[in-house]
Amino acid sequence: MTRYAMVIDLARCVGCDTCSIACKAEHATPRGMLWNRVLKYETGSYPHSRLHFLPMICMHCAEPECEKACPTRAITKRVDGIVVVDNNRCMGCRYCVLACPYASPRNLDKLGSYYEDYLTPFEKMGFARHKAGTAEKCDFCLERVERGMEPACVVSCVAKARFFGNLDDPGSEVSRLIKEKAGFVLNPEMNTEPSVYYLPSVRGDR
Amino acid sequence: MNSNIPVSMQQVWGWRVIWHLFLVSIAAGAYICAFILSLVYPQHSRLFMALATLAVVPLLIIGIALLISHLGAKTKVIRAFCHPNSSWLSRGGIALLVFLVLDIVHGSLPLNAPPPTPWLPFLHFVLGIVTSLSALLVLLYGGMALARLRSFPCWRSELLPLLFIVSGLSGGLMVLVLLLLILGIAPGLDVRQPLILALQHAGYVLVIQGIVLGCYLSWAKGLPAARGYALIITRGAYSVTFWVGVVVMGILVPLGFGLYAAYAQIEGLLLIIFALELAVFGLVGTLLLRYVLVSAGVSSALSVEGNPVTLPQNARAPTSHLVRYR
Known about the structure:
The structure holds 2 protein chains of 2 kinds. By secondary structure, chain A is α+β, with helices and mostly antiparallel strands.
């Protein structure tokens, strides 16, 4: 079996948001819509404070709360573990937005251009894939993965902080990294079994 | 919870959903209360049931229209009925439709057929029970839709659906009081006795509502993940709305008016004024209760290597969200 997963090394992430922009370019997401975000938070207090970065995408949970909440069956989990939204089925109730513990699905209010009243040729082409009023989220770059490529955020990461692979394969790089570098998931108490793992920001192997 | 950590209140469900929850709850509450009152006081059964069946249709239609207007892709609403096994929104949609249809059927059933028909009262009774069950599901669904969300620990309590049910019932009684007052304008129609009964029972339900609300907030205050929510409601951004609108205007004032009017044997204009104030204040309180409970919802913070990170709930939130650390 295949269960696609991603490992994000917090020790390597520099918070440059290249992944966010690569995601935007890959999926031509309209203005205001980000499938990949980099949250920033601070620990400690001056002069010993430290800025941390937390890249957030859809966690592609094994037990997705958004799928259970969706009243129209627009959100489904594929056999390879990727959770996808069918915007032809979504009615835009935003219940999935509330249900997700990681706030991954977002409702696309309108197909907003980056220019006041003008759509660039890129936007015209890309916006055909989006529907205003429906929920959207990261799909692990499904089209790329199906062609044997890695997601756009993985290949574009300047710090090589992202790894993509099969979690069910014990010999894969993601499985090895999780095992060797104590990978963890966010809020395991939610029991959603996310497929996105993080490696600690402070380790002895840097 | 450390009060220095900012919390993120939900901004996903706004006034349309709140009004929807309010209108469908008071419609369902009005029907259930009228049905129970008609069983306990058979001499007023026709009046209570006629008022309830009449009130339910416009309230439900407006409530459903508001929910549909909230949807981003309104034409897909028919799909909302296809996932009842796990989604409470789907169950709620089905319950709303069944309740509306049953209420119309019940309302259009003749009270007396020209040749005496012994089965007609029995049919009314059976239909009343089935419709009341669908109404109960409508009352339940709003609270359950919130209570099953793991991402909002502040709502994950069995007390929340119970609160929605009790406040829906009290709101339903206020609707009946309001309709009795309107009906009382008609000459030759004496509604004093049914009005007193409705006021009396509204008082009892308000007492239960106050107790359930108190229990729910003390539960939230005791739970570390939900404490911020309880503090926002009782001391924070929603404190004025809560204490003035929900507690004083929505519970204490109607309770005082209702019980005084019911037990002090007042009549005439004074009774009308008291009943009107109870109904209006009570309905405003029922609406504000939903507004406060839904708007102040606080999602669980992410825990990253022991550090709490607040998730921005707004779809238009900045890409980076800086939070303070204790």
